[in-house]
Specification:
By secondary structure, this protein is α/β, with parallel strands linked by helices. The protein contains 11 helices and 12 strands. Among the domains are: 130 residues, Ribosomal protein L1/L10, rRNA-binding domain (Ribulose 1,5 Bisphosphate Carboxylase/Oxygenase, 2-Layer Sandwich), CATH 3.30.190; 85 residues, 3-Layer(aba) Sandwich (Rossmann fold), CATH 3.40.50.790. 33% of the residues lie in helices and 18% in strands. The protein has a 7-stranded mixed sheet with strand order 3-12-11-4-10-9-5. It has a 3-stranded parallel sheet with strand order 7-6-8, sandwiched between helices. Strand 9 and strand 10 form a beta hairpin. The protein starts with a helix and ends in a 7-residue tail after the last helix. This is 39S ribosomal protein L1, mitochondrial.
Length: 367
């Protein structure tokens, strides 16, 4: 007790604040009060700020092992984004090894016919099975390190077929005639300002409705319930805002939904699997549906983004057999910049010739 008392007394009687000597439990503890380093307070305050917690992806045992080995070797193991098939030789015979030669590319009609043969009543007995299109994407953009995230879209095929889903759709419009047309088109519920007030009061729950569609005229009133709608709030980017509400409702009622999901390990590789019809449909109708799907997916990419779609395949459950299909002929044709400048020059020359012709036919009055 005496030693601790003497130590405290020495600390109190110390004349210089920069050097304090304390004796506690027979140990001499020396503390110096120096000025703090530059930025320590800022770092201390930054630790208190709540940081965003990144979600940890649930990986399987095999995927986790691949990721660990990938981190050790500092190189990517899975490169499905790269088309290795183009480096292989073209087969010259009617029998070849698939691992050493290029795979055969089919047309839509040929691929559908091959599936019909295996799904014949004498074999698998599935003549009405669905035809799925498996599309591989390159999610890289023109900016380094920036990738296209996962997206969900609904496509309205030119030749509809059943999607076997129950969709509850709520539609908003300021015009009574448009509300009646939306209900006839298949909307579960439609209304205007009165419906917005009932939702704001809590009389109607929005959890039952998967999609919320609206016209641009009523968008100012919808801002009142934006916090309740959250991600369902109608926007032109999501395709839920349009002046033609009737056709928009028909699209969401009869359309087919598809998801673009990035790979867990290879973030720049995405995959879409979407049905384009059934085997009992006409081959031309299936081809038109496939072309509509390719154009809809291609509209997601930016103008400068090239090679967005890598490969396309056609599958038909219950078999796992697939046929590679050529999709390039269904992409929209882009006019090069040189051709555009030439066309503009030709248009300018035509306009000048027309002006000269008008001047030649003009009558100059005599003085």
């Amino acid at each position: 007790m005496a030693i601790t008392f003497v130590g405290r007394l020495l600390n109190n009687l110390c004349a210089t604040p920069k050097c304090n000597i304390g004796v506690v439990n027979q140990f001499v503890v020396q503390t110096r009060d120096y000025a703090a380093r530059k930025g320590t307070r800022a770092r201390r305050e930054a630790k208190k700020v709540k940081r965003k917690i990144e979600k940890i992806e649930k990986l399987g045992f095999v995927e986790r092992k691949l990721k660990e080995s990938q981190a050790k070797l500092n190189k990517s193991i899975i490169k499905r984004r790269v088309d290795d098939d183009k480096y292989k030789t073209i087969p010259t015979d009617n029998v070849w090894l698939l691992c050493r030669h290029r795979k055969k590319v089919y047309t839509i009609e040929e691929a559908v016919q091959c599936h019909r043969e295996t799904h014949h009543p004498t074999l698998l007995n599935c003549p009405n099975s669905k035809v799925n299109a498996k599309i591989e994407l390159n999610l890289e953009t023109e900016k380094k390190g920036k990738l296209i995230g996962a997206f969900t879209r609904i496509i309205d095929y030119p030749h509809c077929f059943g999607h076997e889903e129950t969709r509850n759709i709520i539609a908003f419009s300021s015009k009574q005639q448009v509300i009646e047309k939306a209900l006839k088109a298949g909307a579960t519920l439609a209304g205007g300002k009165d419906l917005i007030k009932s939702i704001k009061a809590g009389d109607l729950a929005l959890l039952e409705y998967q999609y919320c569609l609206a016209e641009p005229d009523i968008l100012a009133d919808l801002i009142l319930i934006r916090g309740l709608l959250k991600k369902k709030f109608p926007t032109s980017k999501a395709g839920t805002l349009s002046p033609d509400l009737e056709n928009l409702v028909k699209k969401f009622v009869l359309g087919i939904k598809y998801n673009a999901v990035p790979e867990k390990l290879e973030k720049n590789y995405g995959l879409i699997e979407c049905p384009i019809g059934t085997l009992d449909m006409d081959s031309k109708h299936l081809e038109e549906n496939f072309a509509a799907l390719i154009n809809d997916i291609n509209s997601v990419k930016s103008k400068k983004h090239t090679n967005f779609i890598i490969r396309t395949q056609l599958l038909s459950p219950p078999t796992k057999e697939y046929f590679i299909v050529d999709f390039t002929q269904y992409l929209p044709k882009e006019i090069p910049k040189k051709d555009q400048t030439v066309e503009e020059g030709l248009m300018g020359n035509e306009e000048e010739e027309e002006e000269e012709e008008d001047i030649s036919h003009a009558v100059i009055p005599s003085q």
